[in-house]
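forwarding from the other thread:

> can someone predict this with magnesium ion?

sure thing
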Amino acid sequence: MLPKPFLMARPVLEHIEKHNHKAYFVGGCVRDLLLGRPLGDIDIATSAAPEYIQEIFPKVIPVGIEHGTVIVRHGKESYEVTTFRVDGDYTDQRHPDTVQFIDEIDKDLERRDFTINALAMDLNGNIIDLFGGRDDIDHQIIRTVGNGYERFSEDPLRIIRALRFSSQLGFTIQSKTLEEMAALREEIENLAVERITNEFTKLFAGDYISSGISYLKELEIGKFLPVMRDYPDIIHSIPSTIKPLKSFGEVIALFHILHPEVSVKHWVSSWKCSNKIKLEALQLVQAYKYFKTKEMDPWLVYRLSPEFYAGFCRLVNILDHSAINIHELIKIEDQLVIKNKSELMINGYDIVELFPEKQKGPWLNHLLKRIEKEVVSGRLINNKKEIKDWIKWNPPEID
Ligand code: ATP
Ligand code: MG
C-alpha cells in the first residue's frame, strides 16, 4: 500500500487520466518512496498542457505557466503539475531559453538532473526508470542523466544539487560525475545567489551533512561562492562534530561565531537571505555569546524566540560538544515572569513623568532595558511601585 501522501494525490492523477491525458508521480517523491524516506512534495508530470489543467481543475495557480508548471489545489494539499517538456538552450545558465511541450514522458525524464531523480510512477505503481535510477538508488550513487559536462554547463546549479543530495541521502557521487563537477565548478559564479542559498539550506540540513561538506572541501567549491571565496578558511573550520542545521539562520550564526570578522549582515546580504533569517542568526549569535559568559538563565531564554530554541541547542551541541536539551529552555520559559516587554508594569510615559526636567533621549530606552532585565532575572518585582522605588536607587545614566 502506498504511503498516505500518494493516496491523497491519486484523485488528481485520476482526474487527468479521465480527460485522456497521461499523468505520473515524478522526481523526488518516487526516489524517496523507493528509499523509504520521509516524503517531501508530491510532484506530478502530465501530457496535458498547463492551460488544459487550468480548465479541468477548479483551483489552479499558474506559478510558472511558461515553463509548463501550475499548482493544483486539492483538498488542503497543493501539487505541482508540470507538462512533459524538453528544454531548449540555457544561454543564461539559469532557465532554458525555450521549452517545448511533448506528449510522452521519456524526453521529460531525460532533462532531469540525476538518475535517482529521473523516475516516474503511474497510478498502478509501475515505475518508469529509463536511466538506471533504481540501480543507482540501490547502490547509493549520484550520477547525471547523460553527459555530465553538458548537464552541468546547461545549469551549474546541478553541481550544488549533487552535493545537496549527497548530504541528504548519504550517497556517493559517481567518480565520472565528480570529475565533471570539478571541471565546471567555476560556472557556479554565474548562478543567481538565491538558487544557491536554497540548495545550501538543504545541504546543511541533510542527515549526512559531513558527506556534503567533504565534497565541498574536496572540490573547493567555496572559491566560487559569496563570502567563502574571500575567506577560504571558513569551510575548513567547520567542526568535525557538525550535525544537521535546520535553517540557514543557524548556518550563518555558526559561521559568524567561528569567524567573527564576517558580520551576520554581510552574510545575509551576500547570500540574499530574508529578514527572518537575519533575525534568527542575530538572536542565535546573541544567545550563544551570552551563554558562553553567563550560562543559561532567564534573560537568555527571554530574548530568544521559542521558534529558535531547537536551533540554539543544535549550535551549542556542535560548538561546545556539550548536549543541552530544549526542555531546559522550555522549563525556564515556563517560569518567566514576563514573556514580553509590553507586560512590564511601567512604560516610557511613566518614566518621563518621573523625570519631567530631563529631555527624552536614548537614556529612556536604556533605563527601560535595565528594568526589563531586572524583572526577567527575578531581582525586581513587576509592579509599578517597586519599579519606581528601584529607579530612585538606580537613576538613569546621564547621556
Ligand atoms: P526535495 O525532496 O528536496 O524536494 P527533489 O528531488 O524533489 O528534492 P526539487 O528541487 O523539488 O528536488 O526538484 C524536483 C525534480 O525536478 C527533481 O527530482 C528533478 O527531477 C527535477 N529538477 C529540479 N531541479 C533541476 C535542475 N536544476 N536540473 C534538472 N532537473 C531538475
Ligand atoms: Mg521536490
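Residues 275-294 form the longest helix (20 residues). thats all i got for now
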